[in-house]
Design a protein that fits this description.
Elements: H1 41-68, H2 73-83, H3 88-98, H4 103-112, H5 114-133, H6 177-180, H7 186-195, H8 199-216, H9 220-263, H10 274-288, H11 291-312
Length: 320
């Protein structure tokens, strides 16, 4: 059966179905708007224009009633009676005009403008970065409860069990690399050694005190610890004296070379090698020692050389 296409008139709706709050339910009915018929198009054009004007007037009335609200029952009945003569096309147009924009429409608009999408994403990333920079507020159920932290926040590996009071930290210039470094300036090192030469006397007094404690104590472990301290202090004094002796030899030799150049005896200075410096320092050390100490040192030296020769000798072969 072929249906005759004719202009449909306004569709009447029940007043209990159409309501101001349910205008959005007809969003999908925009495809069923009135279409002009091919037959009698010339005669029906005036009627459609008049109907469209009436529908626009009704649309404005519906909007005014929806915005103004329903103060009483009489106003509700009048609005319902006015809505009875509205077609689906007018309702769809009203929804199109007065309904809030949907998320799909907003997404389609953003897709049409990629620049706006990029700006929106940048703004979101900036806000997210700001939220991450903000320190999380620590909340506890009570002051005796343990601290609550987020699992996303890394726990500090440092455990502040005890925080000592800030004290003044003294710096010893003898161990300061800016003063005692050999590459910095040798003159500063010499000056520092001269300025702190009195510390050697303190070390000598400390050695005497340690030896007195060794005689008084009976604990073997404590005696061994005190002996190690005495040996360490004596080694420090010997090393300081050796460095001082070597520096003295170098300064005296350089002074002699300068005088020889001034007198015209030499054209170029001669600089001592490290081995020569150590040899002269050892000779000076032995000359400064007493006779008993010198003999004792010679015996130790001979003993070391003998043990060294014994290590180099081959072992006795066993007779098969």
């Amino acid at each position: 059966m072929a249906l005759k296409s004719a202009s449909r008139g306004p569709i009447r709706l029940r007043p209990d179905v159409v309501d101001d709050e349910k205008l959005n339910e007809f969003s999908h009915s925009s495809d069923y708007e009135d279409e002009p018929s091919n037959e009698g198009s010339t005669s029906g054009s005036g009627e459609t224009e008049s109907e469209s004007e009436d529908e626009s007037d009704l649309l404005e009335g519906v909007a005014q009633t929806s915005e103004a609200g329903n103060p009483d029952d009489a106003g509700q009945e009048s609005s319902k009676s006015a809505l009875n003569d509205i077609s689906f096309g007018v309702l769809a147009e009203a929804q199109e005009r007065y309904a809030p924009p949907s998320k799909k429409r907003k997404w389609s608009q953003n897709a049409a403008d990629p620049g706006a999408v990029q700006e929106d994403n940048d703004q979101k990333s900036q806000n997210r970065a700001k939220d991450m920079k903000k320190p999380n507020k620590i909340s506890r159920t009570s002051k005796h409860a343990p601290t609550v932290l987020s699992s996303r926040q890394q726990v500090s590996r440092k455990r502040d069990v005890f925080e000592p009071s800030p004290a003044i930290k003294s710096r010893d210039p003898r161990f300061d690399p800016t003063i005692m470094s050999s590459t910095f300036d040798k003159n500063t090192v010499d000056k520092a050694n001269k300025n702190y030469a009195f510390l050697t006397t303190y070390q000598a007094v400390e050695i005497l005190d340690l030896k007195a404690q060794i005689k008084k104590t009976k604990d073997p472990e404590l005696v061994a610890a005190l002996k190690r301290k005495v040996m360490s202090a004596e080694a420090k004094i010997r090393n300081a004296e050796a460095r001082q002796r070597e520096s003295k030899i170098v300064t005296e030799h350089n002074q002699k070379e300068r005088e020889a150049i001034r007198a015209g005896q030499k054209a170029k200075p001669y600089y001592l090698k490290p081995g020569e410096i150590r040899k002269q320092a050892e000779e000076e050390r032995v000359a400064s020692m007493g006779k008993r100490a010198r003999d004792k040192a010679e015996k130790r030296k001979k003993k070391r050389e003998k043990s060294k020769d014994a290590k180099n000798m081959p072992r006795f072969r066993r007779d098969g």
